[in-house]
Amino acid sequence: MYKGTGASAGIGIGRAVIVEEKELVIKRETVTDPAAEIQRFKGALEVSMKQTEALAEDLGKRVGEKEAEILKGHIMLLSDPMLVGEIETNIQNECMNAEYAIESVCTMYADMFASMGDELMQQRATDMRDIKTRMQKVLLGVASVDIAALPAGSVIVAKDLTPSMTAGINPANVTGIITELGGRTSHSAILARALEIPAVVALGGILEQVKDGDMAVLDGTEGTVLINPDDAVLAEYQNKRDAFLKEKKDLEQYIGKPSVTKDGVSVELVGNIGKPEDVDKVLQYDGEGVGLFRTEFLFMDRDSMPTEEEQFEAYRKVAVALDGKPVIIRTLDIGGDKEIPYMGLEKDENPFLGYRAVRFCLDRKDDVYRPQLRALLRASAYGNIKIMVPLVTCIEEYRQVKALVHEIMAELDREGIAYNKNIQLGIMVETAAASLIADIFAKEVDFFSIGTNDLTQYTMSVDRGNDKVSYLYSTFNPAVLRSIKRIITCAREAGIMVGMCGEAASDPMMLPLLLAFGLNEFSMSPSAILRARKMVTQYDTRELQAVADKAMSFATTAEVENYMREFINQ
């Protein structure tokens, strides 16, 4: 058995098909007619754009607009005047061939994105390498592997899958995906989940262990892979696959049902989104609102700041779609870790401990924060919008934001523009500092939302992108658990709503603890909502108190995880 990272849930069984893209050899050559070479580059650029547009359109029809947005992001990269301009300048000034000019410019950008350590930027690096290879293939006349034509019952085994390759997969023929590289948050993993194809990624060296035609079995939940298992093991996994598909079908019965425990405790199960289009998935899975709308996506992949009007329309669209259900919108969480040239942000030596989020926004009130807050307040007239401030570490920051919100409210009153005068202003509790003074915050803010991804990172002093220290990164660490419990207790004592929008909110092993602690709202990937609702309805919070007390008595992460795993499996 081989162990990787589960990227898309389910059991995949089929014959291995090794998918290897022909390695391109790009050499620098001197051209005598740079103007003609620029035209050659422009021709390849146009073909690549058309190919990507066709892929995006097909994906939009087959899967959904949200998934097609990933490829639309590629189109934006291909049409970026800065990228195109740099490639053309290299051809013109250095008299170099188009293939090499694309190689040098795109690789520079990809390396820059990859060095930032942020998950979003890692995806951007992969996207940049994807469009680079596609343009070069057009120039060299090299055909891509036709993934759409794979035979039924295929399990793809590859070094890595680019988003464009994944988008071309026919789910009727592909029963699983195994890759040596990649991560759970990569665009290809996101597409695999959207296509509902089980996937295991980050399985280094698997290509040396498997050959075309081998029987491959993978568990996309556990992240395990078996090659040529015996008949008994194969039968066991076939049963597992049938059980998984049955459970998935059974979850549909929870659509329209209330999220209430056996002893009558009501909670809200809501979705995390990054773009207005994502709200469709929240509604599809019967989410009770949006617990986190990440607004930074509105600011990326463009060469100028989104206007107040553009932002207003995006926020209004989500508020109207949810028709009175709560929509928690996080103000801009951006810093030196995200490359947005027009923002004029200097590269931060340590972006996660530096100039970002509320620190950056309060420093750029006039051109960045004020337009966003005005757009949010105006959109609040159309639905139940709540404003959430990220990375708050001291009460002064919150008071400054609140003062600015009241200033803008007075401005809107003078202009006769409608807004919700009782709009709630809360904070994302994601730092050790905010957790330690949660009692102070709870007296002044309207709600808490716990960001477990960063809370774990900051509490444990662990860069979650660093493999060497990843063993320390766990929400089940006693220090993190105590922090979460304290935050929830402080909120409950002050009578304010407390939610969670980190990965832990949908973790089956964490959910019983959060219910016992008294969490009000669980925000997660929309596809996890129905499974979470099923779990909620099966628990009695009074019985869970003893489970939580026992979990909190352990000294190590492993003890907590083992205990919760046993409890879940009973």
UniProtKB/TrEMBL annotation:
Keyword Nucleotide-binding annotated: no
Binding-site residues for Mg(2+), renumbered to this chain: 430, 454
Domain PEP-utilising enzyme C-terminal: 252-540
Tagged with keyword Manganese: no
Superkingdom of source: Bacteria
Gene Ontology BP, a term: phosphoenolpyruvate-dependent sugar phosphotransferase system
Compartments reported by the entry: Cytoplasm
Class in the EC hierarchy, top level: transferase
Domain PEP-utilising enzyme mobile, residue spans: 151-223
Active site (UniProt): 187, 501
Positions contributing to phosphoenolpyruvate binding: 294, 330, 453-454, 464
Cofactors (names): Mg(2+)
Catalyzed reactions: L-histidyl-[protein] + phosphoenolpyruvate = N(pros)-phospho-L-histidyl-[protein] + pyruvate
E.C. no: 2.7.3.9
GO cellular component: cytoplasm
GO molecular function: kinase activity; metal ion binding; phosphoenolpyruvate-protein phosphotransferase activity
Alphabetic keyword roster: Cytoplasm, Kinase, Magnesium, Metal-binding, Phosphotransferase system, Sugar transport, Transferase, Transport
Domain Phosphotransferase system enzyme I N-terminal: 3-124
Family matches, as PANTHER family: PHOSPHOENOLPYRUVATE-PROTEIN PHOSPHOTRANSFERASE
Similarity comment: family membership: Belongs to the PEP-utilizing enzyme family.
Function: General (non sugar-specific) component of the phosphoenolpyruvate-dependent sugar phosphotransferase system (sugar PTS). This major carbohydrate active-transport system catalyzes the phosphorylation of incoming sugar substrates concomitantly with their translocation across the cell membrane. Enzyme I transfers the phosphoryl group from phosphoenolpyruvate (PEP) to the phosphoryl carrier protein (HPr).
Name of this chain's protein: Phosphoenolpyruvate-protein phosphotransferase
Organism field: Candidatus Caccovicinus merdipullorum
